[in-house]
């Protein structure tokens, strides 16, 4: 009941046209069977995004996202918090940072992507569609992941055609979780995304301390945990 009430409240108070810029981002869109259920708002530098959809996986993808064009190397950073509880909803609900060639690609003509996300329980999930023909792969997922040394701040980094997920350590610095090679366009779309992994549900996440740094990338205080 609380979930439905809050979702309805966000929809009434924060509805934004999909083409309208928001914060540092230039556009937003419901993709696939999100069924135009997504909403984004910005208040006090906190992005709140709700989305439905079957998943960011398979054909077609189903999620809501906000995005901007980025050329060349970058590091995108965000602290991710589930608004309705980290342990609720579908196991594979996702909120995170995604890089795609296009806003939506139902025919998968340019459907490559990489996504750094948190799923239910705040577990890390780095997944990608490295080629249109080969489909998706989970590059990082560990059901027994030790979250005690980690915060909820994640990064998606591009260096050439190498895409990497990093997660912040509570003690300082970032840990590199996984990397994958994807031959994507030089200028792509980078943004924040939410999928419920269930078209009957709506999930909501808050994104804080959001930034996209362009140019030659480097991560200070790098360490493994």
Explain what you see:
The protein is mostly beta strands. The chain has one domain (2-214): Jelly Rolls, CATH 2.60.120. The chain is built from 1 helix and 14 strands. The protein has one helix spanning 2-14; strands at residues 27-31, 39-43, 46-51, 63-71, 74-82, 94-100, 113-118, 124-131, 135-141, 150-159, 162-169, 174-181, 187-195, 203-214. The strands form 2 sheets. The chain has a 7-stranded antiparallel β-sheet with strand order 1-4-13-6-7-8-9, with no helix packed on it. Strands 2-3-14-5-10-11-12 form a 7-stranded antiparallel β-sheet. A hairpin with a 5-residue loop joins strand 7 and strand 8.
Structure summary:
The chain has 225 residues and is mainly beta. It has one helix at 2-14; strands at residues 27-31, 39-43, 46-51, 63-71, 74-82, 94-100, 113-118, 124-131, 135-141, 150-159, 162-169, 174-181, 187-195, 203-214.
């Amino acid at each position: 009941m609380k979930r439905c009430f809050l979702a309805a409240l966000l929809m009434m108070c924060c509805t934004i046209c999909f083409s309208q810029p928001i914060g540092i981002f230039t556009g937003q869109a419901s993709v696939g069977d999100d069924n135009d259920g997504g909403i984004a708002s910005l208040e006090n530098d906190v992005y709140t995004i709700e989305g439905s959809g079957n998943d960011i996986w398979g054909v077609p993808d189903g999620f809501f996202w906000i995005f901007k064009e980025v050329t060349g190397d970058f590091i995108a950073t965000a602290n991710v918090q589930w608004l309705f509880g980290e342990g609720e909803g579908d196991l594979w609900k996702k909120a995170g940072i995604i890089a795609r060639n296009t806003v939506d690609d139902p025919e998968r003509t340019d459907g490559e992507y990489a996504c750094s996300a948190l799923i239910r329980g705040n577990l890390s999930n780095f997944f990608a569609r490295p080629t249109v023909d080969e489909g998706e792969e989970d590059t990082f997922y560990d059901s027994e992941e030790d979250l005690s040394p980690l915060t909820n701040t994640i990064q998606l980094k591009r260096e050439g055609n190498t895409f990497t997920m990093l997660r912040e350590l509570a003690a300082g610095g970032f840990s590199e979780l996984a990397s994958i090679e994807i031959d994507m366009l030089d200028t792509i779309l980078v943004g924040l995304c939410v999928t419920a992994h269930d078209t009957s549900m709506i999930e909501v996440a808050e994104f804080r301390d959001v930034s996209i740094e362009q140019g030659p990338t480097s991560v200070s205080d790098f360490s493994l945990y």
